Amino acid sequence: MSVEAPARRPQRERRRTTIRIFSSASDAPRARRPSDVFLLLGTLIAAALGTVPAPDATALDTAAANLAAAVPGLFGGVWEVAYDVLLIWPVVLLTATVVARSRLRIGRDMVVGLVATIVYLAGFAATTGTDLGAALTDWLDPAGDHAAYLGVRVAIATALIATAAPHLSQPLRRFGRWILVLGVLATVALGAGALLGTVAGVLLGLAGAATAHLLFGSPGGRLTPSEVADALADLGVQAVDLAPGPLDARGVATMLGRTPEGRPLRIKIFGRDARNGQLIASTWSSLRLRGASPKFGSGWQQVQAESLVSLYAERGGVPVMPVIAAGVAAEGDAVLVLDADGRPFDALDADAIDEATVEATWRAFRRMASIGVALGRVDAGSLVLRADGSVAVGDFSDAAMGVEGRGLDADAAQVLVVTALLVGREPAVDVAARVLGPEALERALPYLQRAAMDPAVAHEVKRRGWDLDDLRLLAEQETGSAPPDLEQLRRVTWGSILKLAILGLIAYTLVSAIADVGLSNIVDEFRSAGTTEVILALAISPFVAFPQAVSTRGATLAPVGFFPVLMLQYGIQFIALAVPSSAARVALEVRFFERVGVKAAGAVSIGVIDSVVGFAVQLTLIILITVSGLASLHLFGSGGSSSGSGSGQAIDWRAIVIGVVLLLLAVGVALAIPRVRRFGRRFLDGLRQGAADGRDALRVLRHPRKLGALLAGNLGTQVLQAIILGVCLAAFGRSASFAELILVNTFVCLFAGFMPVPGGVGVFEAAMTAGLIAIGVPQAAAASTALLYRLVTFYIPPAWGGFAMKWMRANRYL
Known about the structure:
Oligomer: single chain
Structural class: mainly alpha
Mean pLDDT: 76
Number of strands: 8
Radius of gyration: 32 Å
Helix content: 55-70%
């Protein structure tokens, strides 16, 4: 019993003498695939983002045109041929659907995809001000006067080729992709379209194809029973009575059959649907759940992974459905052959499963946990009742080895829900406690939530009107444990998305109200932004974490390297999008410093010390700059000149007095609220409890070198952020003195830090706009600078912060 390498087919040469055009039979079943939904939404969103500079040519378009002009003339003929083939190949495909027998439906799909693309082109043309009528008239002529935006010929060719692609054999699909790539290059090289407009054409063509596939479905190009039989024969497995099985949620096709001796077989076929399904499901999980990551792999890699875990589990004593063989079929689809002597739980009658079956299931999972194997995804189809009455694990497609802790506990929670659906909640909890033990069952309770369940299981729970809280309560009563805090599995929820959208709306409303500018004015400012300055601001942004790391190291006496603390700062930038930045900093720093040996209270003190010193530095900068007269914020006046020069202005004492009065009123109102007073008492109690450990952390202030690092790090952070703000301001042709930049940035950071809004979204942008206006920056430029500054310092940094989080987890700093 072993997994064989992909076999070389002796019959393959004979088969390849026949040219195969279509990937499946004309009457092959079609399906609407989730990948088409993602493709449609993704291409439309990407094209919409490209409308910001449209229809004018950008620096990128000019650079691409100059590069094409610099290419030796020898390639001129190649580009002309590629540009012509871009039109000829779709016509050939459309003609083939008419000539070939029973393929008219493909031609219908291509026409619908073409019409949908033209509709999208018309919509985007109206948005960007492109003359689509002229473009549609001249698109046949590469020397015509084409618009700078929206490549019509590329869009039409992409729509036709992409719509037909699922119906074609693999060589023809690859040929079509190369036609599109060369056609895009030729369009730019011949000057028939600008780079961004050509890319937008490709995106809209793909959107049109996805629309056609969603309307009519598309075949998966799955193997026929005869092709599967041939592939199994090459692997040394004789199979008869093959019949197509269902296509699972991840896109893996199945076939059922038997050997000539009567042994039942289950064949899993990993083709294009399986690859797309794995990528989409894993990507969605990585966006939605903590700890998940996208999976990129071919069908053969998926087969290898599943086979390896299955064999390892079998060798470790776990009852499994044995792997018989594995290989690759002639069309490139990977094939996995399993013993099928049994029936999945979801195919059994309700009275076929009793408590003894559930007990056998838990014993299998307990054994699997003992060798560190977690299924990752558990549903009734993952479990098999064999002919002899024993229970086996039948699906290792999402399983992993070397798992401990949360992965095993999440598996146990899923098994508890699945068994409760089969035999009832009380019997399921009783058997789980008896087999696992109270402690193991208690560890699974934080994962007893919808986010940890397979979507099919969660849907079944909802259909029955169950509440997982009731199941958790039963388990708590069985184990005698206190109600657990649920594990924070969700990275993004619909509520958080809605909250962020509302905050974004508030931000825009505040910016518009303060600056009295509309979205069109802001877009115009962004179109005129200097590319060099934007790139420079992006390049400086990652270095802000360096002085932050210096200040954090200065806040502790614990020996910790600079690079891990730098990764900590990038990690803080990553999670600051979901929770307020101060809370993110404290929570992550506590976990980080606990890992390097600092006690919990001391770890909290490190964050507090760093924050307090940062606050002191900010306050000192504001007072020094204002009192010295280097700069001031005219929040109640007209401001200075349009250049942003406001040096030497008098102190606005009225603003200071009003600000102090408002602050005192806010404190008085807060103290009058009982809930706030209770929170204050709990906070003081927590400080007293942690005073002993915190006192050790405060010893850092007695070390001049550490105190210097704290001050220098926080000061350096403000200076670097002010530099970035100045670069962003310069991108819109404006300038301000360095003192003004530091004053505005420091004041806004201090102000936004007091606001109970995640990341200061909306509040920060509005305050920054007001601050820039107060030093004399025109309204539209101020709003645009505030948005660009937040983009490069807050919304983009999580891109590299995600890698820092993975590094810290891999090196056990979290």
